[in-house]
Design a protein that fits this description.
The protein is an alpha+beta fold. It is built from 36 helices and 33 strands. The strands form 9 sheets. It has a 5-stranded mixed sheet with strand order 22-1-29-28-27. Strands 2-3-4-5 form a 4-stranded antiparallel sheet, with no helix packed on it. It has a 4-stranded antiparallel sheet with strand order 6-7-8-9, with no helix packed on it. It is globular. The N and C termini lie far apart (97 Å). InterPro entries: Beta-prop_HPS5-like, HPS5, TPR_HPS5, WD40/YVTN_repeat-like_dom_sf, WD40_repeat_dom_sf.
Length: 1029
């Protein structure tokens, strides 16, 4: 196991996951594709989970036991909020715009009751709920910008209060959708898409926070000042701004300052401490982040929390610092209580995180006997574990016990690193915690009875702290190079544990990429990468005399004895300073950066440098005049997945970036250029330098028609389970993997697909978003891919399916491809839906389509005019008449839609929410004329779609006939007007006795309605005159 990197001393807190809520969701059946968790709220006692079926599960946090389930028939649950001062009340919002306040009545052991209901936001999506901090009052915000509140009656408020119905009152209507609501000390904070507003609900006064507008989802919250000298001060306001900025305002809405977090977020993310996978910390600096904070929440002790769909951020705004930020995948919503976070993921999964110090995290891990995870946290946060205050929670004997629990055969490096941490521990009564940084890591000490610290140097030299620190600070570059050594990791040398899974058909074609699409995106980064690489090589050559000479001993191989095996005197001659300076100068030239041809030539000049450093031995020994590489047609050269020689990490990183540029620019052998390597040769020779994820994405983006890709997988128990042919056990083994990444999962999924075909590919939806539809489309057959796509879309709730499918369309041209696939596979025969001349067959829209649900979503996706025209032609050519009618309505081709309806001869197509009903009298005339034209009984009526004729007669009530259309028009415009339109169309029609009776009844109803209206108008007129008099 490699050494655990150490986190800087500025970070002493972590997010840790100790509890697994998956069994809870399984018990509630919220882990299925049909029923999912949609929202959540948390309080001291409850964890409330809203579902897509309209149920609200109340989970008692002590023991995670379900206590209640509240059902709602008014749609799925979209928002839920627990009352902060009385946990017997909870507010719920549904997808139909209903808001309900429940009184649980647990203390009296009664049944839960709806004590208040509001339909004020009916038809709108409710986006925010917020409780009053002192009264039983709930504030509601929706997508239209309306903010209202409703009061809850309860017997707790006094006699008769439970029977009082309080009216719903509108507070205000802002300019755009409400993003977040907050309430504190009589004032309501409303954050919309463009501004933040502060409302005094008692005095009905309103203020705008700041003068600048914004555009997007940005949250805002109150920040109580309840610490130290700030106790009793009014709370502050924090409002998110674009570009990782947050406004700080006072209680009157006046902006006091702007906190800039963009540069502060350039630090690497702290790992999430979780039982699910081993934490990994990459100390490399990241670029500044420009993040939009969709919501802000007050967390724990004077902290501010926000999140995106991929990360959680926690700030200390009073100091203007980043407490921590951690990458968490697929976040949808977060609820907090004190220092605890409950996260809802897009897949419906729940996570429970705790914000705590590193030493408290280790203490809890030790109590749970998570030995390996506790050791990693100790090594990673050494500065927090070694302090004297940590001895209260982590005594030395507990760390010694922890060390004894680790296996010396598998965790030898980790044991050694933990021993170093134990040697640095400060005693409990030590006063050196304030100056712990001055104690050298290579010295130990003990405390004498008189209180004197006795420092013992293990180097045998003077251990004066100040002198040692000065010596370290004044260390020259040459001395650092003398101490530099390369470490060959054991897992890289052991090739017996690695097997290769290689599919090389069309590989050379697959890896190419057009320079026009990539040169602009990488011109800015080429300069810094090549400059750093050449400077590093130059430094290593200039200081070659400083390297330690090899000391060959018995039993030690010469190639791993010292770093001088890489940088020999022969390499010094090859890496001349003039050559490297020439490459650097050419890269810095703007004419080279902006010219793809010159840029490729420069990279081709760099390639021999790479060949000499890391190329095969026979290649490095050749002269410059000889061509390098193995012909593209041969595959005898093995794939190299680890570096053949030890290389400094910074130099290896720069070489990796340049190798990726070489691959993405497609600098492979073209036009007989002997300097370039072929595609297959380059990939096999330098596969260890390539970023597998970037290569995979490049292939999927540019060459989706070639389904073969080079993959690398580790031999493991998962492969053995897959080879046995048990699909369920294979999926269970994949879920138990410590970490999921696309390059690691794709080989296993490909094996599953080869074994089980369509049955396997239908299960791949559970690996989204790690495995994308583009991955499955490149792997599986078209008909099998459709089954995967249909399962993936149906796994979302009904209201989210359309937007989710829209997010999968990258690029937009996939809409046409997927629509055509769904129209071809598992579809009716063309002869059943189309006549020989291409017209609709009678009732052919009643045929079932295998992917009808997916087709219905594809035709309803937002698209431009030309795309809708293409989709309409596709639907017509394949006989998908439901989609064709919808698209005709979208394209305003209503006459074509009426013609098709008359040919299909089904009057139900004019009814319902999806029906196309005539709007004007001209459309009614056109429809009646078309119905008369197609009213003759077609030949294909007999036996089509289950319909039949018996005794020479038919049930014509569902046909599109002039008589049925006249009755529909009579119900809309009146019978006299309908008969007049019929005469204008020149249709000679004799109504049946039933139709005649219906028209007479409509006339009577119309007369009575007119008489009633006239009576009401007269009464209103008399009343108004009486009031005027």
């Amino acid at each position: 196991m490699p050494l655990v990197p150490v986190v800087p001393e500025s970070h002493g807190n972590v997010l840790a996951e100790f509890d697994c809520l998956d069994p809870l969701l399984s018990a509630l059946r919220l882990d299925s594709g049909r029923l999912k968790c949609t929202c959540l709220a948390v309080s001291r006692k409850w964890l409330a989970l809203g579902t897509s079926a309209g149920g609200l599960h109340l989970i008692q946090r002590e023991g995670w036991k379900q206590r209640l389930i509240l059902t709602h028939k008014e749609g799925s649950i979209t928002q839920v909020a627990c009352c902060p001062h009385d946990e017997d009340f909870i507010a719920v919002a549904t997808s139909q715009g209903l808001v309900v306040v429940w009184e649980l009545q647990l203390e009296r052991r009664g049944r839960p009751e709806r004590v208040s209901v509001s339909w004020e936001h009916k038809g709108q999506n409710i986006t925010a709920l917020c409780w009053d901090t002192s009264a039983l009052r709930v504030f509601v915000g929706d997508t239209g910008g309306k903010v209202s509140y409703l009061r809850a009656g309860s017997s707790k408020l006094g006699k008769g209060s439970a029977f009082v119905i309080f009216p719903v009152q509108t507070v205000t209507t802002v300019d755009s959708r409400v993003v977040q609501l907050g309430y504190q000390d009589g004032r309501l904070l409303v954050s919309s898409l463009s501004r933040c507003y502060l409302c005094d609900t008692d005095r009905e006064k309103f203020w705008r926070v700041g003068n600048k507008e914004r555009d997007g989802e940005y949250g805002a919250c109150f920040f109580p000042q309840s610490k130290g000298l700030l106790v009793g001060q009014p709370p502050l306001l924090y409002c998110a701004r674009p570009g990782s900025r947050i406004w700080e305002a006072n209680f009157n809405g006046e902006v006091l300052s702007t906190h800039q977090f963009k540069q502060l977020l350039a630090c690497p993310p702290l790992p999430l401490i979780s039982y699910r996978n081993e934490p990994h910390y990459n100390p490399a600096q990241k670029s500044p982040q420009s993040v939009a904070f969709p919501k802000l929440l007050y967390l724990g002790d004077q902290n501010l929390l926000t999140w995106t769909d991929s990360a959680i951020y926690i700030f200390t705004p009073q100091n203007g610092q980043v407490l921590l930020w951690t990458e968490v995948k697929d976040l949808v919503d977060v609820a907090v209580y004190r220092s605890e976070l409950f996260c809802l993921h897009g897949s419906g999964r729940l996570s429970h995180y705790s914000l705590l110090s590193a030493e408290r995290c280790v203490e809890r891990l030790l109590r749970r006997e998570s030995w390996l995870l506790a050791t990693v946290v100790c090594c990673m946060f050494q500065h927090a574990i070694t302090t004297s205050r940590a001895r209260k929670s982590i005594p030395i004997d507990r760390l010694e016990h922890l060390k004894s629990q680790l296996s010396s055969s598998t965790h030898l490096d980790l044991i050694g690193q933990l021993e170093e941490v134990i040697l640095k521990l400060e005693p409990l009564d030590s006063a050196s915690s304030s100056r712990r940084s001055s104690i050298s890591s290579h010295e130990s000490f003990n405390v004498l009875d008189c209180g004197i610290y006795r420092v013992i140097s293990r180097r045998g030299s003077q251990s004066d702290e100040e002198t040692g620190s000065l010596i370290n600070q004044s260390m020259s570059e040459e001395e650092r190079l003398r101490e530099f050594s390369f470490v060959q990791e054991e897992d890289q040398v052991d090739h017996g544990k690695t097997q290769y899974f290689l599919i090389e058909q069309q590989l050379s074609v697959r890896m190419g990429i057009s320079k026009s699409s990539s040169s602009e995106s990488i011109n800015n980064s080429v300069s810094s990468f090549v400059k750093k690489t050449t400077e590093k090589i130059n430094t290593l050559q200039m200081n070659s005399e400083l390297w330690q000479r090899p000391d060959f001993r018995e039993g030690v191989q010469a190639e791993f004895s010292a770093p001088t095996a890489i940088y020999s005197e022969e390499m010094e001659n090859e890496y001349s300073i003039s050559f490297i300076s020439n490459i650097s100068t050419q890269i810095q030239d703007p004419l080279v950066l902006l010219d793809p041809v010159c840029l490729e030539d420069t990279l081709l000049e760099w390639l021999p440098v790479l060949e000499r450093i890391l190329g095969p031995t026979e290649v490095a020994s050749k002269t410059d005049g000889e061509p390098t590489g193995i012909p593209n047609g041969t595959t005898t050269e093995p794939v190299r997945v680890v570096s053949p020689k030890p290389v400094p990490s910074d130099l290896l990183a720069n070489l990796t970036q340049l190798a990726m540029l070489y691959t993405e620019l497609s600098c492979f052998r073209k036009g007989g250029d002997v300097r370039a390597l072929g595609c297959t040769t380059f990939l096999r020779r330098y596969f260890f330098l390539l970023d597998q994820e970037r290569v995979r994405r490049m292939c999927l983006l540019c060459y989706q028609e070639q389904p073969d890709v080079q993959k690398l997988s580790q031999s493991s128990k998962v492969v053995e389970v897959i080879q046995r042919g048990d699909l369920l056990r294979s999926l269970r083994s994949l879920k138990e993997l410590q970490s999921w990444s696309a390059p690691a999962l794709l080989p296993h999924l490909y094996r599953l697909y080869e074994k089980h075909g369509e049955a396997a590919v239908r299960t791949f939806s559970q690996f989204y978003p790690t495995i994308t539809p583009a991955d499955v489309m490149a792997m599986a057959q078209q008909r099998h891919f459709l089954a995967y796509l249909d399962n993936l879309v149906q796994s979302r709730t009904e209201e989210h399916r359309l937007s989710f499918l829209q997010s999968l369309l990258e690029p937009e041209s996939l809409r046409q491809d997927w629509l055509e696939l769904a129209l071809i596979h598992d579809a009716p025969q063309h002869c059943d839906t189309l006549t020989p001349d291409g017209q609709p067959r009678w009732h052919s829209h009643c045929f079932s389509w295998g992917y009808g649900r997916l087709l219905s979503l594809l035709v309803r996706l937002p698209a431009d005019f030309s795309s809708k025209q293409k989709m309409a032609e596709l639907c017509r050519s394949h006989g998908y008449w439901i989609g064709y009618l919808y698209l005709c309505c979208e394209l305003q081709r209503r006459s074509e839609a009426f013609t098709t309806i008359c040919q299909l001869d089904d009057i139900s197509l004019l009814e319902g929410p999806d029906g196309i009903e005539p709007v004007t009298l001209d459309e009614w005339k056109l429809l009646i004329q078309l119905s008369q034209q197609y009213s003759s009984v077609p030949e294909q009526l007999t036996g089509v779609n289950g319909g039949s004729w018996s005794n020479g007669s038919a049930d014509c009530s569902g046909r599109v006939s002039p008589e049925n259309l006249t009755l529909r028009l009579a119900r809309t415009a009146g019978p006299d007007r309908a008969l007049a339109v019929l005469e204008e169309c020149g249709v000679q029609l004799v109504l049946s006795p039933h139709s005649t009776l219906v028209c007479e009844l409509l006339r009577v109803a119309e007369k009575r309605q007119r008489a009633m209206i006239q009576t009401m108008l007269e009464r209103c007129d008399r009343f108004l005159w009486s009031q005027h008099a």
